[in-house]
Amino acid sequence: MSYTQNNVINLFKPSGPTSFDMVWSVRKILGVKKAGHIGTLDPMADGVLPVCLNRSTRIIQFLLPLQKTYRATLELGSATDTQDATGRKIYIRDASLINETKIKKVIQMFVGEQYQVPPMYSAKKKNGIPLYKLARNGINVDRDPVKITIYSIEFIKKEKNRVLFDVCCSAGTYIRTLSHDIGENLGCCAHMVRLTRTKVGLFCLGRTLTLEELKSAHEEGSLPKKLFPLEEVLNFLPAIHVKNEYLEPISHGVALSKFFLETLPERFEPGQYFRVLGGDDKILAIVEPVINQDKLSELAPEDIVFKSKRVLC
To answer: Which of the residues 108, 168, 197, 305 has the least number of beta carbons within 10 Å of its own beta carbon?
Structure first.
């Protein structure tokens, strides 16, 4: 089935199974050899879990940094050892005086760049050992803070001791840690009791497929219309066009010399990624500059401007 080669599924993960469980189910339903998700969701969380199929697994590393949006519920007045509802309560404090005004003020303190300490119950590693394995053995270790960005937080409502809020953040942000830290700043402690991922890049909750819907669409032959092609998924990367006579070398991972290029972005520098398009706007590869645009005029036509990171054709 050619439609499983270069496409991405916008899968809905229910609460309960692991992200790996979901990918395994996709492989079984579609009979594909390779599949991989874009960003782990904890078992208790639900929502958007994009899954790349076969050749599209080559782009996972470029999608992992995409912004993510969540709807979360935290419970005031108690903290757990996992920072969510799956853990054991370790603190209980009075939260009766915490009102909406104070909550709105405190959550806005978290908007912007900051350093977040990963929770002990996480897949982060210390000296090669996953933190959750240490935590299960009663071992608590120092963790290196990770730089994250909270782009926005919106208070939705408060019902009794539960607070519902939306957050848009960078990859690598732990919403249960954010919930815990909000509770600490409110002076009453808190833990996360529910989490739904509502968006990953262009993948949104309203266009997800459940495993049951995936299976039905596959059996009915309507699945191709519900998949996301690479051209759409990678549209957030700036594009460069190459001359038709150089399409073949690009398919073999050859670096792009100056004379390969039909069009160029106004600005570029090492560390950025670009999608390479052929004459029909089909995506051929992802490349990275080896220089910035200020040096372009100094290069001879045969000098390399971009190195290949992934061949996709």
So the answer is: 108
Please pick, among 42, 46, 84, 181, the residue that the annotation labels catalytic: 42
Statement to judge: residues 254 and 184 lie in one domain: no
Number of structural domains (the chain) is 3
Residues 78 and 179 in one domain: yes
Residue spans of beta strands (DSSP E) within 242-303? 256-257, 274-277, 283-289
Q: pLDDT tens-digit profile of 218-232?
A: 999 999 999 999 999
Same domain as 226, residue 155: no
Residue carrying the six token digits 């199974």: 17
**Whole-angstrom Cα distance, residue 136 to residue 123?**
12
- Cα gap 76→193, rounded to integer Å: 10
pLDDT digits 0-9 by tens, 169-201: 999 999 999 999 999 999 999 999 999 999 999
Residue 42 is among the residues annotated as catalytic for this protein: yes
- CATH number, domain at 15? 3.30.2350.10
Asked whether residue 12 falls in the same domain as residue 60, the answer is yes
pLDDT in tens, 123-169: 778 888 888 888 888 888 888 899 999 999 999 999 999 999 999 99
1, pLDDT greater than 60:
no
Q: How far is CA 27 from CA 33, 199, 209, 239, 252, in A?
A: 7, 23, 15, 31, 28
Smallest Cα–Cα separation from 227: which of 54, 49, 62, 3? 3
Domain of 149? Answer: 68-200
Same domain, 191 and 84: yes
Its pTM stands at 0.91
